[in-house]
């Protein structure tokens, strides 16, 4: 792929949605006169992704993340703007384009519910024209990485959520797509399963050089997988950059935590930073980058000082801040 | 290219067959649900004890309704319900992202269940025949007429499929397209030869009914299978059946194209 994997310019999507009030009266009135409202789900998005990038779409519910993914994968026709994925216009859904991409949605399934997942794998082998040797090699590789073993020969309805998602990922990747769209892939999963899915996606991206575009409510997914994030709110792009950059712009303070046998009274440290929590022998403070060294010196000198840690604010706190204060106040900006 | 397409269809067919086998219990119940011709058989055969009714005597009714039961099984489709569910829940997205057209996917999965249906329905039909007629059995047409029944049954299946597809496509705009299909089904039961052999309708009405898609989908292949049509009537039957098939295929294609466009405009 010589050009960008994804190129989006002025992309917009508007829906016309029926609306009615509550109650029987409103229901009866709606029979004769329906009211519609226009909802602007995506507003003039512009960005470009290079082949092999891992990018996270972040935003609150209804921000336009899934709508954007659906336009990129060809399921939705844009209302305005241009979109090009792997050199194709997605909504034309040409077979060559469909062989290039894959979309995995945490809340939708492509596996046959009452059959073992391996039956759907075999279907995909044929309809995506994967030769048997490549299929066998990829399947063996995926089975090993995801520890599928017995899972893929049980009827899908008998699998747990995490097991099913592992099989969904295998079904989505057997044809070796160069562009992978993941919509909430770890929804409702426990920590171990989330970790397994993240590592699998990372491995696929690194070994095949595939572009990965991920939406997730779980900031852990995004922080662990995506060097680059796009923050979307009310359909518009609010930030395009790295997690670190967003964090430093939104919450420039560093978070310092330490354990000690004896903690000083709050007043003693007030000049160096803001106390966030004090729990037993553990103290957590937010401090300006310039004051980190002084605070660390002071904390290391505490009696029985241990487990001192300096880090950026957690991404979920950063995102809460972004959406609470509004983008203008956070100093974040979009970069088309 | 054609070989590749055929491999795709065969793979979908195999998956459909595996699903049909997995759902064999449900399939048996669906077959019982469509066993109305066997109930009609009991009624009409009982009435015919006193003597023939129209051009049907008692063995004639038994043969007719057993054949109607079998043809119904072999022309069954359920794409209207599948499509409605897929549109309403958004499951259709999965099919839209595969490099095989969703209509061909539905066609193959519907075709895949037919062998399983036939396997379950054939013993039921055989038992009914033995119980009703003893050793006489089902008297089928021979030679050319029997061979012609096969394309007529294929035509009946395709006709049922495209009717359901056309109505199913309404789910792109209305939530419950299957409710409209229930209306179609009511007309089908009355006018297809499912409950009453078409030749028992009063003269003018029978001729009119023979021009409708309901009779073309069931009564026509049944009459052909039983050798009740001469060459001219068979030719006319095919003309009517394949004209409906062509017209409704074009309608279904247009409905699909507009529906899919609407689907990608309003949300998948």
Structure description:
The complex is a heterodimer of chains A (336) and B (268). Chain A is α/β, with parallel strands linked by helices and 336 residues long. In chain A, 36% of the residues lie in helices and 27% in strands. Chain A has helices spanning 24-32, 65-73, 95-98, 117-127, 132-146, 161-173, 191-208, 219-225, 243-250, 266-269, 292-300, 315-325, 327-330; strands at 6-19, 35-49, 54-58, 80-85, 101-105, 179-183, 211-215, 228-233, 236-242, 254-259, 274-279, 282-287, 306-311. In chain A, the strands form three sheets. Chain A has a six-stranded mixed beta sheet, with helices on both faces. Chain A has a four-stranded antiparallel beta sheet with strand order 11-12-10-13, with helices on one face. A three-stranded antiparallel beta sheet of chain A has the order 2-1-4. In chain A, β6, α7 (191-208) and β7 form a beta-alpha-beta unit. In chain A, α4 (117-127) packs parallel to α6 (161-173) and α9 (243-250) packs across α12 (315-325). Chain A is globular and about 70 Å long. The model of chain A is unreliable at 328-336 (pLDDT under 50). Chain B has 268 residues and is an all-alpha fold. Chain B contains 13 helices and no strands. The longest helix of chain B is centred in the C-terminal third of the chain and has 36 residues, at 231-266. The mean pLDDT of chain B is 90. Classes of the chains: A alpha/beta (336), B mainly alpha (268). The A-B interface holds A 15-16, 67, 70, 73-77, 91, 93, 95, 98-99, 101-103, 105, 108-110, 112, 114-115, 119-120, 122-123, 125-129, 155 and B 4, 7-8, 10-12, 14-15, 18-19, 22-23, 90-91, 93-94, 96-100, 261, 264-268.
């Amino acid at each position: 792929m010589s050009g960008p994997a994804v190129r989006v310019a002025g992309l917009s999507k508007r829906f016309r949605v029926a609306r009615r009030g509550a109650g029987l009266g409103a229901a009866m009135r709606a029979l004769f006169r329906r009211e519609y409202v226009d909802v602007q789900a995506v507003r003039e998005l512009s960005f470009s992704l290079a082949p092999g990038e891992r990018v996270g779409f972040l935003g609150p519910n209804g921000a336009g993340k899934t709508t954007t993914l659906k336009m990129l994968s060809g399921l939705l026709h844009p209302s305005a703007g241009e979109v090009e994925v792997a050199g194709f216009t997605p909504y034309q859904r040409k077979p060559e384009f469909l062989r290039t991409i894959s979309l995995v949605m945490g809340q939708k399934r492509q596996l046959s519910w009452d059959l073992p997942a391996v039956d759907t794998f075999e279907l995909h082998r044929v309809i995506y024209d994967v030769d048997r040797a490549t299929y066998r090699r990829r399947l063996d590789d995926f089975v090993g990485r995801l520890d599928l073993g017995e899972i893929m020969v049980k009827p899908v309805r008998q699998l747990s959520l995490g097991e099913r998602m592992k099989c969904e990922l295998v079904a989505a990747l057997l044809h070796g797509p160069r562009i992978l769209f993941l919509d909430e892939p770890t929804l409702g999963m426990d920590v171990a399963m989330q970790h397994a899915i993240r590592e699998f996606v990372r491995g696929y991206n690194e070994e095949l050089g595939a572009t990965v575009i991920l939406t997730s409510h779980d900031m852990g997914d995004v922080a662990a997988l995506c060097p680059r994030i796009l923050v979307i709110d009310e359909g518009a792009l609010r930030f395009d950059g790295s997690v670190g950059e967003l964090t430093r712009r939104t919450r420039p303070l560093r978070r310092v935590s330490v354990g000690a046998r004896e903690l000083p009274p709050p007043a003693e440290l007030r000049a160096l930073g803001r106390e966030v929590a004090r729990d037993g022998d553990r103290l957590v403070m937010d401090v300006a980058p310039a004051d980190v060294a002084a605070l660390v010196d002071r904390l290391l000198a505490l009696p029985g000082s241990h487990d001192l840690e300096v880090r950026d604010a957690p991404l979920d706190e950063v995102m809460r801040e972004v959406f609470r204060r509004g983008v203008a106040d956070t100093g974040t900006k979009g970069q088309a | 290219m054609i070989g590749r397409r055929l491999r795709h269809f065969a793979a979908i067919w195999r998956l459909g067959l595996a699903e049909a086998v997995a759902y064999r219990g449900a399939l048996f119940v669906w077959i019982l649900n469509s066993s109305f011709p066997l109930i009609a058989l009991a009624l009409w055969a009982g009435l015919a004890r006193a003597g023939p009714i129209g051009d049907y005597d008692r063995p004639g009714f038994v043969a007719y309704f057993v054949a109607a039961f079998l043809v119904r099984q072999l022309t069954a489709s359920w794409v209207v319900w599948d499509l409605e569910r897929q549109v309403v829940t958004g499951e259709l997205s999965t099919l839209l992202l595969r490099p095989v057209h969703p209509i061909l996917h539905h066609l193959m999965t519907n075709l895949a269940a037919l062998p399983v249906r036939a396997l379950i329905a054939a013993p039921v039909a055989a038992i009914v025949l033995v119980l009703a007629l003893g050793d006489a059995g089902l008297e089928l047409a021979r030679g050319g007429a029997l061979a012609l029944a096969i394309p007529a049954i294929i035509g009946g299946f395709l006709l049922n499929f495209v009717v359901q597809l056309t109505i199913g496509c309404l789910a792109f705009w209305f939530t419950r397209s299957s409710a409209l299909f229930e209306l179609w089904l009511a007309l089908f039961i009355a006018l297809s030869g499912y409950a009453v052999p078409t030749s028992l309708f009063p003269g003018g009405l029978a001729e009119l009914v023979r021009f409708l898609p309901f009779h073309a989908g069931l009564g026509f292949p049944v009459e052909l299978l039983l050798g009740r049509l001469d060459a001219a009537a068979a030719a006319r039957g095919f003309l009517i059946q394949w004209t409906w098939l062509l017209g409704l295929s074009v309608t279904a294609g247009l409905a699909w194209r507009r529906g899919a466009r609407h689907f990608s405009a309003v949300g998948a």
